[in-house]
Prior knowledge:
Layout: E1 5-8, H1 10-23, E2 29-37, E3 40-49, H2 65-77, E4 81-90, H3 98-103, E5 109-116, E6 119-128, E7 135-142
Parallel strand pairs: 1-3, 1-7, 4-5
Antiparallel strand pairs: 2-3, 2-4, 5-6, 6-7
Amino acid sequence: MSNAxxxxxxxxxEKIKREAEETYPEECCGILIGTANGTEKNVFRLYGTQNxxxxxxxxxxxxxxxxxxxAEQVARDADAEIIGFYHSHPDHPAVPSEHDxxxxxxxxxxxxxxxxxxxxxxxxxxxxRDDRKSYEKIAITIS
Length: 143
């Protein structure tokens, strides 16, 4: 595990889990807005998005460029930045898939929530290494 951490308010964790349950059996997705200071990232807002993947939404997600652009403006207006993304894994562990790795960007935080039979469970934090070959697990502090 990396020495990096992320602080997420409990209410936002619960909101991600509810969204994951509501979209089950498809993946939910959204953008994390907050601040980054050294190895600590602080999430203080979620920007929920529609999963616009063209097919297989049970195993894939995609955020539209328009939603990304809107989230950038929301972050700027809050004197913050996009620090990562969240999505769910229906009936799979909260661990990045190979597909996730192929489309991820280093530095950004990825929160993944597992949803088993429609009920959210584990939420885990991940950051893609700079060489893009694997992830580091990021400790989540729920405030």
